[in-house]
Amino acid sequence: MTLTIIGAGYVGLTSAVVYAELGHTVYLARRSIEKLEALKRGEVDFYEPGLSEAVRDTINRGTLRPTTDLAGAVSDSSVVMICVGTPPREDGSADLSQVFAVAETIAPLLADHTVVVNKSTVPVGTGEKVEAIIQKRLSKQSTMSVASCPEFLREGTALADLRNPDRIVIGTESIRARSALLELHRPLPGKRVVTDRRSAELIKYSSNAFLATKISFINEIANLCDEVGANVDDVAYGMGLDPRIGSAFLHSGIGYGGSCFPKDTQALHSIALEHDYEFKLLKAVIEVNQAQRRQFIRKIKKTLGEVRDKTIGVLGLSFKPFTDDIRQSASIDIVRWLHDQGARVVAYDPQAEHKAMQEIPRLQVCPVAEEVFTGAHAVLVLTEWPQFRCLPWAACKQGMISPIVFDGRNMLDAQHMREMGFQYYSVGRP
Ligand SMILES: NC(=O)c1ccc[n+]([C@@H]2O[C@H](COP(=O)([O-])OP(=O)(O)OC[C@H]3O[C@@H](n4cnc5c(N)ncnc54)[C@H](O)[C@@H]3O)[C@@H](O)[C@H]2O)c1
Q: CA 420, 426, 428: angle at the middle one, nearest 5?
């Protein structure tokens, strides 16, 4: 099949590569010539493991075709996918301006019977709005349909997730669109969930909201563990063995971040409110997540007192490991707080340091993790990059002013840290 993908971010570019690997011809719309040329050389402007190589391979095979000729690409495609951003507005609702702008642009360019697919995460009813925008500008002889195919990839494992999806959700009322989308995904594994457009849109938000709920739940249990002297790792392990609960997403820490969970939980809460429904559980999930960062900060204050003029080492800036994405990162929030309090922050992240420095120009970053310990009054572990476990902790301790570690991701062995002489604090572990 021939398709056009609009939006070359985490979702659009990785999806384009995987559809191209399946043998489809994929036009990837780029707005700037410079970015187009960079992509043709395999240069990707964000970090995702294996992506540059996969871009180069599929371009060389001729199946991935980055282009600035949107009109040519769209008119040659039977499927057009919208993969643009849907960032949060001030009030937490989703800003759909990028999606609507794409709908307006592509409407006059569509060939007859094109299926327009929305892969961006959008509120229930957006499919209808996109269809209405396109219908208004569609050439008189053409027909088209708008379907919803929400995306479930995780940054850091995006290619593997797209190549081996656990489910492919197809939301459409059109028989033609349904068979086109079943055909497009035919070689991929995973269950097919064929449903109406509104249900498909809601599946995406409900999935993210449920995962966020698990995280906030275990974080509340962790806080309780701190009070009663229990160990949240053992509690979570014991809970997770029950197959009705499952062990995934029962890892406590400083809460969720990233470009999806915070915005999608807020947006789902707004969707409910717009329909006069107060989603109380979700409101609590959001509040608990915000409180979790403050709780960690309280722990730091309680131990260090004033942080003014103290040097704080920070390990990890991205919102999770294996990505350079710092959107809604708990680490960035905590670094800002430390700066506001007059601390000097020295940070290390294997991938996110450039994006973090753009966000916080006064941030001092180190080329190697070991350097954040030098002259530090405390070191904070804020992203669970696995290599942090293998640092020469005992040697690093020598350079610290006081050997205090706050592990916001519960990734280090508490007993071992104490045996090495660290004053070690984590979340919900005695
Ligand atoms: N990042 C994830 O892990 C993830 C996972 C599942 C779903 N989603 C959802 O997918 C959508 C996209 O997310 P993302 O992380 O890929 O966003 P992103 O910000 O990384 O990428 C969006 C891209 O769209 C481009 N764009 C915007 N308008 C355009 C236009 N008119 N023409 C061409 N390009 C245009 C932007 O320049 C940007 O490169 C969002 O709705 C998000 O919630 C994201």
A: 130
133 HSE (CA, 13 A, CB side): 20
Q: Which of 10, 155, 207 to mutate to test the pocket of ligand 1 (most atoms within 8 A of CB)?
A: 10
Report whether residue 205 contacts ligand 1, using a CB cutoff of 6 Å: no
For ligand 1, is residue 151 a contact (CB within 6 Å)?
yes
Rounded Cα–Cα distance for residues 406 and 227 (Å): 17
Domain boundaries, the chain: 2-195, 205-285, 289-425
pLDDT in tens, the chain (430 residues): 999 999 999 999 999 999 999 999 999 999 999 999 999 999 999 999 999 999 999 999 999 999 999 999 999 999 999 999 999 999 999 999 999 999 999 999 999 999 999 999 999 999 999 999 999 999 777 899 999 999 999 999 999 999 999 999 999 999 999 999 999 999 999 999 999 999 999 999 999 999 999 999 999 999 999 999 999 999 999 999 999 999 999 999 999 999 999 999 999 999 999 999 999 999 999 999 999 999 999 999 999 999 999 999 999 999 999 999 999 999 999 999 999 999 999 999 999 999 999 999 999 999 999 999 999 999 999 999 999 999 999 999 999 999 999 999 999 999 999 999 999 999 999 8
What residue's CA is closest to ligand 1, atom 13?
85
84 CB under 6 A from ligand 1?
A: yes
Distance 392 CA to ligand 1 centre (A): 39
Nearest CA, atom 21, ligand 1: 9
CATH architecture of 2-195: 3-Layer(aba) Sandwich (3.40)
Global pTM value: 0.95
Distance of alpha carbon 187 from alpha carbon 83, whole angstroms: 21
**Is 83 in the active site?**
no
Q: How far is CA 251 from CA 58, 112, 156, 208, 239, in A?
A: 37, 49, 18, 16, 11
In ligand 1, the atom with minimum distance to the C-alpha of 155 is: 3
Domain 289-425 has CATH 3.40.50.720: yes
**Distances from the Cα of 368 to the Cαs of 236, 310, 314, 384, 388, in angstroms?**
33, 21, 12, 16, 11
> Domain 205-285: which topology?
N-(1-d-carboxylethyl)-l-norvaline Dehydrogenase; domain 2 (1.10.1040)
Q: Would the CB of 165 count as within 6 Å of ligand 1? A: no
